Every structure is written in structure tokens, then in C-alpha cells.
UniProtKB/TrEMBL annotation:
It comes from the Bacteria. The chain crosses the membrane at residues 30-46, 58-76, 96-129, 136-154, 174-194, 225-245, 257-278, 298-316, 336-365, 412-433. It comes from Pedobacter kyonggii. GO terms for molecular function: gluconate transmembrane transporter activity. It is a multi-pass membrane protein. The keyword Membrane applies. This is Gluconate transporter. GO terms for cellular component: plasma membrane. InterPro entries: Glcn_transporter. The lineage of its organism: Bacteria, Pseudomonadati, Bacteroidota, Sphingobacteriia, Sphingobacteriales. Keywords: Cell membrane, Membrane, Transmembrane, Transmembrane helix, Transport.
């Protein structure tokens, strides 16, 4: 019964938003409260669950998203995004631009969490799209496919790292296997799939594209790239430092502090305010206006992301995900396929790739061992399952929809389908690798 309620709530949520045109934030609140009541949650606990779901989701994202939006607005208004787009245009040409975007997302996605990478790279997507006069979805999806694959498949991202520990997998082997599986998934779900979407138009409400500036007023390409990707460089640099100086506790602690995404973003904003603002002749008060405008642009996006966390929290605390997992565990399937299926269903129900992966890990752990699945491939099977069919209960779905100005239908046909392709292609690659390595 609980499982039917869960699926019913998701259907009602889609209908409220897509058919009844209810504000997305309100729709999430209504469905979350209704789900809590139907699933038997004590009435007194519901407000606390709402606060926890909203707070936990925004607590880890709000600062990064707001600072990322500020950086994105500054990168756009200073002409840095225009400079990067111009160089990409000259280097790759329109014919290969989606491959360039995939490569950028692949590199940036290794050290950065998905949401951090998204808000940092979105102004480049806007600038490239406007410079080439191409649809935002066609330009942006390959880059975001790369980011998503990196987030779900490879350490040092949260879910893969936790899975490596839980399954006693080898970190280096998991990373290498993950790269082998990730590359075809990125190519097919990125540049190749993007060709299908080349005619998909959108109407973004977030204005990350500034007026075109003459070439002599643009910052240099080095300044533009370093300023735009400084958080990536900071996090990557501090990660290397912790490995090199692993015996020096003081250095490691300092590196981890500076490499925290929030601290890295704060440092980047301070540095970029000078490199892209003050040094270019802008007054500090004018730069602050840019930052205020950026925060206004994403206010509703933040609320929508937070409200998606409320529904996820209701499903977690009522135990409905565990009920679903018990049903699936009774299926007689090969271990890697069963692990993928359990994780994929949990992803459909819970939204969060990380939570789906970690929840599935506890269920499928007995399938790993000398007479079971290879632990490194099990990490990847769970990781690929955790990316399956992102939809309305996933904050990334709303980031993509709201930033690119798409309808619910368009987001399903682009973002959700891309995530499904990534997940299924990943599974196929894992099963093939299992046959080659352990037949």
C-alpha cells in the first residue's frame, strides 16, 4: 500500500504542476504534507520533517548556489564568458562545439560536485549558445551530462566514495573502471543525443547573458578562464595537497578548509570581484548591484530545490523506500543487474542520487564477496542506477528546467531522458566489463 501511495503522490505532483499550473513550490508543499498523512506519519512530526527536508537540502546548497549565481553574473557582465565562448568558437567551430562542452564538463566534473559545477558553468553555456545562435539545451546538455556522470560514477564524489568504503572496493580500480564506463555514456548521452534536441527552444528567466562588448573591452582569455574556473582549481589543488602532504596534519587541515566548496566559492568571489571587476574599471558599488541582481534571479529556484528536499525527507522518514527495497530484493536476477534495479527504483522514488545509492548499498551488500559480484563493479552498478530518470522529486531536474527556461514536458524529453540514457548505457558497460574481466 505504501508503495502505491508513493507513486500516486508523484503522479499528483506532476499533474498539479504541468496540468493545473500550480506554483511548483506550493505543489511540493501540498503533496509532501499529503504524503506524510497518507503514509501514517504522526501529525506532530510533519512540521519538523518539513523543516528538516528544506533545511538539509538548502543547508548544503544555498550558499554555493547563491555565490555561484553571483560569480556567473559577474563572469557574464564582465565579458569573461563572451571571451571564453569566442575562443571556443575559433578553436572548435560550430560543428564540434558540443564535444568541446562535453570535454569541459568532464574535466570540471572530476573534482566538483554536480550542483557546484552547474552554477559555475551555466554562464558559459549561455554565452556559447548566444554567440553561436544555438538552442541552450543543445549546447548545455553535453556539458551537464558529463557533470552528472562524474557525480554518479566516480570518486571523490560523495556516493561513489561512500560505496567504495561500504563494499571494500579498490579506489584506483573503481576510478579506472568508472572512466572506461563513463566515456561512452557521456558521448552517447551528450553530443550524440544533443543532436536530437537541436530544435528544442527555451525561454530562460535567469539572465546570465550580458550585452555584447567590443573585443578591446573584453578581459584576457587567461583571466577569464582562471576567474570562471577558480573554484575548480582551488578544490583540485587542495585535493592534491592533501595527498602529497598526507603526513602533515596542519597542512591537510588547512587544505581541506580552503578546498571546502563553500570556502572555495567565497575566496573566488573575493578574487573575481577584483580580477573581473575593479581591475577592469568597475566601481565596487556597481559590482554589488550585479550580485544583488544575481540573488534575485535564483530566489524561486532555491525554494523549488528546497521543497523537493521536503518530499524526499517524507519518503525517507516514513520508511516507504525500505518497503520498496524489500519487494525488489526478492527478485532472482544477477547481482549487478539487481543492484542497478534496486537503486534505480529508489532514485525514482527519492529523487536524490546520493541517498538512493547509499540506501541501496545497505540492501545489496550481501551480494558482494568471493562468490558474488566484484566490489568495484558493484560501486559502479549502484552509481549508474542512482542516475536513472531524474524527474520532479530531484533538485537537479528543477535546476535544469528553471535555468534553461523549459516546460515540464521539455525537461522530461531532454534532462530526464539524458539521465536515463546515462544510467542504462552505464549498466550495459558494467555488464560487458564483468563478462570480459570475470568470465
Amino acid at each position: 500500500m505504501d508503495v502505491l501511495i508513493l507513486f500516486g503522490c508523484i503522479v499528483i505532483l506532476v499533474l498539479l504542476i504541468a496540468w493545473a499550473k500550480v506554483n511548483t513550490f506550493l505543489a511540493f508543499l501540498i503533496v509532501s504534507v499529503g504524503a506524510a498523512l497518507l503514509l501514517g506519519m504522526p501529525v506532530a512530526s510533519i512540521p519538523q520533517t518539513i523543516n528538516k527536508g528544506l533545511g538539509d537540502t538548502l543547508g548544503s546548497l544555498a550558499i554555493i548556489i547563491v555565490l555561484g549565481a553571483m560569480l556567473g553574473k559577474l563572469v557574464a557582465s564582465s565579458g569573461a564568458a563572451q571571451k571564453i565562448a569566442t575562443v571556443l568558437k575559433k578553436t572548435f567551430g560550430a560543428k564540434y562545439i558540443t564535444w568541446a562542452m562535453s570535454l569541459t564538463g568532464f574535466i570540471v566534473g572530476i573534482p566538483l560536485f554536480y550542483n557546484v559545477g552547474f552554477v559555475l558553468l551555466i554562464p558559459i553555456i549561455f554565452s556559447v549558445a548566444y554567440n553561436y545562435k544555438l538552442p541552450l539545451v543543445y549546447v548545455g546538455l553535453p556539458m551537464l551530462a558529463s557533470l552528472s556522470v562524474m557525480h554518479g560514477f566516480l570518486p571523490p564524489h560523495p556516493s561513489p566514495m561512500a560505496l567504495v568504503t561500504q563494499f571494500n572496493a579498490d579506489l584506483v580500480k573503481t576510478f579506472i573502471y568508472g572512466l572506461i564506463v563513463a566515456i561512452p555514456a557521456i558521448i552517447i548521452a551528450g553530443p550524440i543525443f544533443a543532436k536530437v534536441l537541436i530544435n528544442m527552444e527555451s525561454g530562460p528567466t535567469v539572465t546570465l547573458q550580458a550585452n555584447e562588448l567590443p573585443d578591446n573591452e573584453l578581459p584576457g582569455i587567461t583571466n577569464s578562464v582562471i576567474s570562471a574556473l577558480l573554484p575548480v582549481l582551488i578544490i583540485l589543488g587542495t585535493t592534491l595537497i592533501t595527498k602529497i602532504f598526507s603526513d602533515n596534519i596542519a597542512v591537510v587541515n588547512l587544505a581541506r578548509f580552503i578546498g571546502d566548496p563553500t570556502i572555495a566559492m567565497i575566496l573566488t568571489i573575493c578574487i573575481a570581484t577584483f580580477t573581473l571587476g575593479i581591475r577592469s574599471g568597475k566601481k565596487l558599488i556597481d559590482i554589488m548591484v550585479i550580485f544583488v541582481d544575481a540573488a534575485k534571479d535564483i530566489a524561486m529556484i532555491l525554494l523549488i530545490i528546497g521543497s523537493a528536499g521536503i518530499l524526499k525527507q517524507v519518503f525517507v522518514e516514513t520508511g516507504v523506500s525500505n518497503s520498496l527495497a524489500v519487494i525488489l530484493k526478492g527478485l532472482t536476477l544477477p547481482p549487478l543487474l539487481l543492484a542497478w534495479l534496486i537503486t534505480a527504483v529508489l532514485r525514482l522514488c527519492l529523487g536524490s542520487a546520493t541517498i538512493a545509492g547509499l540506501t541501496a548499498a545497505g540492501i545489496v551488500y550481501p551480494l558482494v564477496g568471493p562468490h558474488g559480484a566484484d566490489p568495484n563493479l558493484m560501486v559502479l552498478a549502484v552509481g549508474s542506477g542512482s542516475l536513472f530518470c531524474s524527474h520532479v522529486n530531484d533538485s537537479s531536474f528543477w535546476l535544469f528546467k528553471e535555468y534553461l527556461g523549459l516546460s515540464i514536458k521539455q525537461t522530461f524529453l531532454s534532462w530526464s531522458l539524458m539521465e536515463t540514457l546515462v544510467s542504462v548505457i552505464g549498466l550495459i558497460g558494467i555488464l560487458i566489463m564483468n563478462q570480459v574481466l570475470f568470465r
